[in-house]
Design goal:
Helices cover 18% and strands 39% of the residues. The chain is built from 2 helices and 7 strands, in the order βαββαββββ. It has a 7-stranded antiparallel beta sheet with strand order 1-2-3-5-6-7-4. The protein has one domain: Hotdog Thioesterase (Thiol Ester Dehydrase, Chain A, Roll). By secondary structure, it is α+β, with helices and mostly antiparallel strands.
């Protein structure tokens, strides 16, 4: 594990109460791999009746993308939060298997600038792809 939940929460705009990622497994200049374990354990208000609607996996991906953007900008000596600007080409393949199976978020940064970034997102449990889409982040100056 490269980064734990506390470090992740410090890099996303929502802070700790809405942090949905438990760890960052790996990252480099163009990619980040985040993971959330035991999804039902989180006291996140997006859960209803102990379940998470699959479309909300976009928020998980957005948090991983925001962490990646923050890490890239910190290398430049900057600190600016990143927010979802748009979501495109989202494909929902299947519902989550269960809340006890880890959720992996794989993001590839296609374009990054001082104004924001575009990421491809794949959310999966084990080898089962749940969601694929594109996130556009905005990073106001």
């Amino acid at each position: 594990m490269l980064m734990d939940r506390a470090r992740i929460a410090a890099l996303i705009p929502h802070g700790d109460s809405m942090c949905m990622l438990d760890e960052i497994i790996a990252w480099d200049e163009t990619r980040i791999h985040g993971r959330s374990h035991n999804l039902a354990a989180h006291t996140n208000p997006l859960f209803e009746g102990g379940q998470l609607d699959s479309v909300l996996l976009i928020e998980y991906g957005a948090q991983a993308a925001a962490v990646h953007a923050a890490l890239l900008h910190s290398k430049l000596g900057e600190s600016r939060p990143a927010y979802i600007g748009a979501v495109k080409d989202v494909e929902l393949f299947t519902a989550m298997a269960d809340n006890s199976t880890a959720l992996d978020l794989h993001l590839h940064c296609l374009l990054s600038s001082s104004q924001g970034a575009i990421y491809e997102l794949v959310a999966q449990q084990a080898d089962k792809v749940l969601l694929r889409g594109r996130l556009i982040l905005s990073q106001p100056g």
